[in-house]
Write a structure and sequence with these properties.
Helix content: over 70%
Largest sheet: none
Radius of gyration: 22 Å
Number of helices: 12
Shape: globular
Strand content: under 5%
Structural class: mainly alpha
Order of helices and strands: HHHHHHHHHHHH
Length: 225
């Protein structure tokens, strides 16, 4: 396992050196500036190419594809010292591709792996849902309460509840845990169900404490981890 991880790291380093050399040469700078707009979108295509290649490599070596995607982002960030690719326009378009297409597809495929039948057929696992929910509150809602002396009490509680609202990180962690067989499907479903419960319960209560309309709860929850 360590050997394959070392192979992956060496591959990332070699590709990083090559990409860094390409960014530093004069010709690619002109080409990227010339073809990054209109139908070419060369910088976005390059980023997606690196993303897919590293995700496929990580999967081939027995690691989760998330590791490859993370390595691709780090490589582009380090290699592009001149800011040829990494600029405001590029980031906006990456956000559009990521949040508009890739992340929804990831959540759809992750939802396929959840086994709610196994959860409801196993009382022990079903009992984990409220336990995980309390765990989210204890780990994420209690720290902001340390600010109760500096802030109004109602706002402090609201901040804690909004901090406890989570889903994205949990889904990613559960997906990796299922791939590594650390969790069974029932336990993974219980964990995601508890995260969904925080999305349903915490934002409306927090907004009510802050005196805002409950209808905006879903909009606030969308911006939370």
């Amino acid at each position: 396992r360590i050997f394959t991880l070392a192979i992956f790291g060496v591959t990332v380093a070699v590709v990083g050196l090559v990409v860094s050399g390409v960014f530093r040469s004069a010709a690619p700078k002109i080409s990227l500036e010339r073809f990054r707009r209109r139908t070419w979108q060369l910088d976005i295509r390059f980023a997606i190419l690196i993303l897919v290649a590293f995700a496929a490599l990580a999967d081939e070596l027995g690691f989760d594809g998330i590791l490859g995607a993370f390595a691709a982002g780090v490589l582009i960030r380090i290699a592009d010292r001149e800011g040829i690719v990494r600029n405001r326009s590029f980031m906006d378009r990456v956000d559009a591709v990521g949040f508009g297409l890739l992340i929804p597809v990831f959540f759809i495929t992750s939802g396929f792996d959840l086994d709610f039948r196994a959860l409801f057929h196993s009382p022990d696992h079903l009992a984990l849902v409220p336990i995980f929910f309390v765990g989210f509150l204890a780990s994420r809602a209690l720290p902001p309460l340390l600010l109760w002396r500096d802030l109004e009490r109602r706002r402090t509680v609201a901040m804690g509840l909004l901090s406890a609202t989570t889903l994205t990180v949990v889904v990613v962690a559960v997906d990796a845990a299922l791939s590594l067989r650390i969790l069974d499907s029932a336990a993974a479903t219980a964990l995601v169900s508890a995260a969904l419960l925080t999305q349903v319960v915490c934002p409306p209560i927090a907004l009510a404490l802050m005196g805002e309309a409950p209808a905006t709860a879903s909009g606030v929850a969308d911006n939370l981890d």
